[in-house]
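User: I've been trying to design a sequence by hand for this structure and keep getting stuck. Would you show me what you'd pick, starting by listing the structure so we're on the same page?

Assistant: Good idea, let's start from the same input. This is the structure you sent:
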């Protein structure tokens, strides 16, 4: 049998470039939400901030001294994570920055003025998460700020599984779920611990109709990478929302945010047409990286947010998405928590709130129990 001939239509170079730009721009428009979207209402009870979409990470932290504080930032090697690390370190924080590659994390830390420690972290690998958490715990310091920033997006409409779980959900949500579990004890020890989860507005634009498709976390059924990314980002929002509830009455807060649309490496797995479109549209209507890190830095440091927890932020303000049934859905958040805890059960530690009488200056006193543990 003769193989079918493929018809390949070629464009002269300038025409091909124009075609790519136009196709990319058109394909990316809904991605960027360039055509409207639900209304965002100010979140009741949270003070309006003086900052907006044009504010930069440096501006929102201008008067803040973070000397003596420890900040952990996942995904510090590029984009929003790098800028967040740079600015928090410039304000005096001691920053632990992670990457899948220790060499890349070292190089990012070298490019920053201040004190930064690179640590390896592969969020799809529970062993790597445990080792990273143990490394951070070995610093024997309370954690003041934990920014769950690292993320992956795209890859085509062929599902990629990680330990049997769809990759966006595994990396963006489950990985951070386990990391927080392993580090929470150290956040209790801070004067006021903050967990900041970098989500995305795709949480309410692209997630499945039912919110989280619990029956298809194994990637079964019709798979679309855009929907899978949106679902993982909704999981980020619901995780912070549920954490906020569970940590009520403690000094730890947990919030999530959309950083804006920013030309970073996040598009590295998108197809070439979408990549071109992403570049064009971020240059027209996106934020700079300096602006993109502003909401993370604001939520991580603003004195006005010391008691604000479980909220979702855009452009440095807490907002509520009008008529969205999922973003603050108690039942969905609880179910997500239970399902995630079951999936990560073999790797999780049981947490108990610290008994403050065992602590001195934020650190556990060495006592009889420790000696017993040391001797086996
Ligand atoms: N840019 C945007 O327009 C936009 C919009 C909405 C939300 N966001 C969110 O913002 C966050 C930061 O993204 P970005 O735009 O700055 O993208 P980016 O430049 O691609 O940075 C992503 C970071 O995540 C790390 N990372 C990727 N996969 C990882 C894995 N499996 N385990 C551990 N770390 C991993 C990368 O580090 P290594 O490669 O060195 O490991 C990198 O430092 C993400 O959560 C993203 O979803 C971005």
């Amino acid at each position: 049998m003769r193989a079918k001939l493929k018809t390949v239509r070629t464009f002269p170079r300038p025409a091909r470039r124009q075609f790519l730009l136009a196709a990319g721009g058109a394909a990316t428009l809904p991605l960027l939400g360039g055509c409207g979207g639900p209304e965002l209402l100010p979140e009741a009870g949270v003070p309006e901030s003086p900052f907006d979409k044009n504010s930069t990470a440096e501006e929102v932290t201008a008067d803040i001294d973070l000397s003596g504080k420890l900040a952990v930032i996942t995904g510090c090697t590029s984009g929003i994570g790098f800028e967040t690390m740079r600015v928090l370190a410039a304000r005096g924080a001691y920053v632990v920055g992670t990457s899948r590659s220790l060499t890349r994390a070292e190089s990012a830390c070298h490019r920053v003025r201040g004190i930064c420690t690179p640590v390896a972290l592969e969020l799809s690998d529970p062993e790597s998460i445990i080792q990273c958490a143990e490394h951070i715990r070995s610093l024997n310091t309370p954690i003041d700020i934990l920014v769950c920033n690292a993320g992956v997006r795209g890859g085509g409409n062929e599902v990629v599984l990680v330990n049997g779980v769809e990759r966006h959900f595994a990396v963006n949500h489950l990985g951070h779920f386990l990391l927080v579990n392993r580090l929470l004890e150290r956040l209790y020890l801070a004067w006021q611990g903050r967990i900041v989860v970098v989500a995305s507005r795709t949480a309410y634009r692209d997630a499945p109709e039912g919110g989280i498709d619990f029956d298809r976390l194994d990637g079964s059924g019709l798979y679309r990478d855009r929907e899978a990314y949106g679902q993982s980002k909704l999981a980020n929002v619901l995780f912070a929302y549920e954490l906020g509830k569970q940590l009520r009455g403690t000094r730890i807060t947990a919030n999530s945010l959309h950083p804006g649309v920013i030309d970073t490496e996040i598009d590295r797995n998108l197809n070439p047409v979408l990549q071109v479109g992403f570049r064009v549209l971020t240059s027209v209507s996106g934020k700079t990286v300096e602006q993109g890190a502003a909401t993370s830095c604001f939520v991580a440091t603003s004195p006005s947010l010391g008691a604000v927890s479980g909220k979702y932020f855009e452009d440095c303000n807490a907002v509520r998405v009008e008529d969205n049934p999922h973003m603050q859905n108690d039942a969905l958040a609880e179910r997500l928590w239970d399902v995630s805890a079951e999936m990560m059960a073999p790797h999780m530690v049981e947490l108990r709130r610290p008994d403050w009488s065992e602590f001195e200056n934020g650190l556990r006193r060495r006592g009889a129990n420790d000696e017993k543990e040391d001797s086996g």
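That's my pick for every position. To get oriented when you compare it with your attempt: Confidence is low (pLDDT under 50) at residues 1-35, 371-376. Residues 63 and 314 are 21 Å apart (CA to CA).
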